[in-house]
Design goal:
Radius of gyration: 19 Å
Mean pLDDT: 83
Number of domains: 1
Largest sheet: 3 strands, antiparallel
Order of helices and strands: EHEEHEEE
Length: 164
Amino acid sequence: MCAFFSRPEPRLVLTGDYPLWDEALAVVNRDLAATLPDQRPLRLIAYADSADLDEQVFVALSNGEAHGNSLIPAEAQSAAEALMAVADAAQETVTERLWRAWPLCTVHDLGMHPRDTDGRPSWWCAGGSRHGDPAHVRAAVGELDTIHRPRRPHRKRPKDRRLR
């Protein structure tokens, strides 16, 4: 018998149980590997809801810790919608469970959020606090490994310290 407000034990969602979410999670895990290489891949876990026998599915860290809202099957009508939902859930779990912003914009060092950009899920940055640092799309979800820190031509260079 479980306590009044206790949650049942989660189950690991098997590959193929939710194919659109499986594909979306693989894409998001590319971004996780590119930005947090020491972090193991995210996974899907599910809790059975005893009231109506439906499952609530969450994006979790490899150890099973999750945070935020569950994924809703009705919202995953297309691969793009599934990717948006999984990216949002992954960002929430990583941020809250690791206590760090994720993913970070390499230009502004700010946390980014998933946003639909012309039908393509992308990581969006709010921009810097200075005038001329506008909000921008940093990369499509799944493509953070292709982004490099931009060259800053006006950055101070270290002086040549060789002995002459």
